[in-house]
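Sample intake sheet
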Amino acid sequence: MFDRVQDIPAHPLFIHAAVVLVPLLGLVAILYAVWAGSRRHLRWPLIALAIATPGAVFAAKESGESFSQSPNFQAGELQEKIEQHEGFANNLFLVILGLALVALVMAFMLAVTSESVSLIKAPLAVHWVVVVLGVALSLAAFYYVFKAGDSGAKMVWSGF
């Protein structure tokens, strides 16, 4: 399923969704966590991104695993680069799962009234743990999407 799209390798197509959605989710999660005034406008985009982004990263990761099985990529040195790239992608997927969960918790824990007043529906300590987790996981997601993309691009543009 994740191998080809109309006889074109699926991985180069699927990675673009992940490359766009991961930073968007991270940015929206940070804004939602630290800027109470943004919550009224960003709640539903945060929820949508928290649902869509793990799917995009999963599709990119799975299509990459299918892509790496090609007979063209079996050389030893190339396999080492592919394994490093896959490591970044696996870490990204785990971070995105965590960030999506924290983002959904934030979206429902930090509500906004019709008068744009933020309501924290949890003890203050829990609120701060969720906010710090959201920011930390967003920063980790930025790092891993950069490292996965950079290592993949270097393989492509340096001739493997």
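Comment: The beta strands are 4-5, 8-9, 110-112, 118-120. Helices lie at 11-34, 39-67, 76-109, 124-157.
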